[in-house]
Amino acid sequence: MEQKSQLKIVAKTCNTVFDAVTDIHVKGMVYDAEDWSTLPCIPDDVFQELPPILQRAVSVFDDKRERDTFFTGALVVLSGLFNGVQGTYQRKTVYPNLYCFIVAPASSGKGSMPFAKKLGIPFHSTNNDKLLFLPANISVAALYQELDRNEGAGIFFESEADTMAASHKQEWGDYSDILRNAFHHDSLSLKRKDTARERHYIEIPTPKLSVAISGTKNQLRKIIPNTEDGLFSRFLFYTFRSEQDWKRRTDNEFSLDDFFKELATEMPEIVNNLISIEKFDFTEEQWCIFDEKFSTWLDDVSYFHEDSPSIIKRMGLITFRIAMILSLVRQGSSENNENEAIIYCDDIEFYIAMQLAETYIHHSLFVFTFLNNGKTKSVIDRKRQQFFDALPLNEFTRETAVQSGKEKVNLGKSTVDKYLKKLLAAGNLIQDNYGKYKKKN
């Protein structure tokens, strides 16, 4: 009997999906800005249940980091191909468009991301017609012109973040405010004079921009210097550091460029099969699960990172968009297109999107810590200080510490044990006798 994957099993009923999603946790992930090793890969079972064309695409990458990098970039490219479909999120009309930033040192495996761009090449024109891929080194005025010509749509896809950073350093090329507004499809407008001193007015009522960038930590800072202006939380991040090893020669007759060029020829048919679809939505049961889980994640992350609730809030919208993209790929690949105006998310796509959200949240928290130089105004630090202040001045036992933590700071036993270890390591407590503690004078 064929062994069913975990995703197929959990997708049978809404209750089992709820149980599976409930098992996804982000609590407790307080990252050291230099500790790359703890960052998770995307779970393997996610890739086993992707729509067929995406399964084939990721199958050519043996290295998990390269696979994840390509897939993250592919989500962004696909998000720019499906902008004729909309959904409603928190009472606002939204489209699938995503922003991603792959952060890794040089020669770490980011080179798999450019293959994702090839999926969109059949839709790209360079004959002064609409451009799918927009040049990142562009002036604000030229960007408005391109968006006006493209009916507000386009994809920034840059494997070298310095290309976009170079533009942002110039007064004429800092379009970070456009990126912030476009993420939520807020209208854009530009009024200027040309060389003949004639006034021109351009309005983009519904921008639909997608952005995929890769670069090093230092290059990241040039585009997103801090976590405060809102651009940071609009991106989903994937970051890693791979072991440096020499890649031995394999089958040189197999070219990834040729493979993805051939794979991309299937994309126009997939997009064309979606022409009658106008709207995407979760089922009522999925919305209940979604709200419950993100509410829990918001509490978890807010507890440990006082300044970072925007990561969870915007990740909710990003997750909705990811589910939309995956659903559209599967629908467009299906031989049985019912041509309905609205499609609802299958439980498989819903579960995959939630698994991806959990992974990207961990990576976003890591980047958040890095951009804040390891300082996050963490609530956990304040709680630990309150616990320390509540401990007796004289020698005390673990049982006494547990009682003090519960009564005065509302802490559980496991949290007290963690705090005791942290306080010992930091030198705030000493332990002359086993099982007994004392504050350091």
Describe this structure in words.
It is a single chain. This protein has 441 residues and is of the alpha/beta class. It folds into two domains: 6-242 and 257-371, Rossmann fold, CATH 3.40.50; 379-439, Winged helix-like DNA-binding domain superfamily/Winged helix DNA-binding domain (Arc Repressor Mutant, subunit A), CATH 1.10.10.10. The protein is 46% helix and 13% strand. Strands 4-5-8-3-9 form a five-stranded parallel beta sheet, with helices on both faces. The protein has a three-stranded antiparallel beta sheet with strand order 12-14-13. The chain has a two-stranded antiparallel sheet with strand order 1-2. β13 (429-430) and β14 form a beta hairpin. The longest helix has 25 residues, at 309-333. The protein is globular, with a radius of gyration of 24 Å. The termini are far apart.
**Helix amount:** 40-55%
Helix/strand-derived class? Answer: alpha/beta
- Specify the overall morphology: globular
Overall number of structural domains = 2
Provide the CATH architecture of the largest domain. 3-Layer(aba) Sandwich
Q: Strand arrangement, largest sheet?
A: 4-5-8-3-9
Question: What is the end-to-end distance?
Answer: 67 Å
Overall pLDDT confidence: 85
The major β-sheet equals:
5 strands, parallel
pLDDT below 50 for ≥5 consecutive residues: which ranges? 1-15
CATH class of the largest domain: Alpha Beta
Layout of strands and helices, then pairs:
Blueprint: H1 6-10, H2 14-22, H3 44-48, H4 52-58, H5 64-81, E1 87-89, E2 92-94, E3 99-103, H6 114-117, E4 133-134, H7 140-149, E5 153-158, H8 161-168, H9 176-183, E6 188-193, E7 199-204, E8 208-215, H10 217-223, E9 236-239, H11 256-264, H12 267-272, E10 279-281, H13 284-304, H14 309-333, E11 342-344, H15 347-371, H16 379-390, E12 396-397, H17 398-409, H18 413-425, E13 429-430, E14 436-439
Parallel strand pairs: 3-8, 3-9, 4-5, 5-8, 10-11
Antiparallel strand pairs: 1-2, 6-7, 12-14, 13-14
Helix pairs in contact: 2-13, 2-15, 8-10, 13-14, 14-15, 16-17, 17-18
